[in-house]
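W.,

You were right to be curious about this one. When I first looked at the sequence I had no strong expectations either way, so I just let the prediction run and decided to look at it fresh. Below is the sequence, 102 residues in total, followed by the output.
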Amino acid sequence: MSQRFRITRSFQEQAEEQVITLEECKQYFASKPDFEYAASFTVKGPDSTMTIDGDFFMWSYGDAKIPFRHYMGDLYVAVSNEAVVPKMVEVASDLHADLTEG
């Protein structure tokens, strides 16, 4: 089981823009060669496949694709691999945002 984290500006009273916009994410992640945008994310299990529509920025880490999902002004990412933690911190820092569990 993995933990889910939220990258958000909602705790920042002084922030000009508390919401992380989709357009801001598209511009930011376009500058990162190890990320690509996807309009859906597919999870394959042993007996079924599930596709989730949304705005995903897929981070390539070796053979793995790890989704950073933009949803309602925040980014969400599950830490299923320890390598995600420094990348998540980097993204939050670059976007002038905070990290919180949830």
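Here's what jumped out at me. DSSP finds two helices and six strands in the chain. And, maybe more interesting for your project: The radius of gyration is 14 Å.

Coffee later to discuss?

I.
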